[in-house]
Amino acid sequence: MKSKKKTLYRDSKNGKLGGVCAGIAEYFGTEIWIVRLLVITAFLFSAGFFVVLAYIAAYFILDEMPEQRKWQQSVYKAHNVKKKPWQAGHSAQQILQNVSRELDEMENNIEQMEAYVTSFAFKMDREFTNH
Questions:
Q1: Residue 12: Cβ-neighbour burial (10 angstroms; 0-12, 13-18, 19+)
Q2: 30 φ, ψ (degrees, to nearest 5)
Q3: What does each C-alpha distance from 94 to 32, 49, 77, 99, 107 come to in angstroms?
Q4: What confidence tier does 4 reach under pLDDT thresholds 50, 70, 90?
Q5: Are 9 and 63 in contact (CB under 8 A)?
């Protein structure tokens, strides 16, 4: 089985200041606020200049997250179960609510398609487009 190689990107969609912390949080599968807290703590209690320099360097070195990856992240984020407090994700109850909502939306879409397919308008459209 071939494993996918993870790549570190900047996530400006979920970021506050360039998306560096959001990208690091996504890469390691942790909450964004934890990474931000670590960066601020390092800035305050360590060499602040080097933390700012490293952040700026990361902003210019890291590529922006591709649109495809942003889309995948948003789709799978709703179904990501949080197993530990520091991990990103939702509780099992939230996951069930998300899945239930999505199934209700699918059911409504299917009902709309069924209503159209069994309608007189569909029969007329089919007759005129096939000839």
A1: middle
A2: -125, 170
A3: 19, 41, 11, 9, 20
A4: low
A5: yes
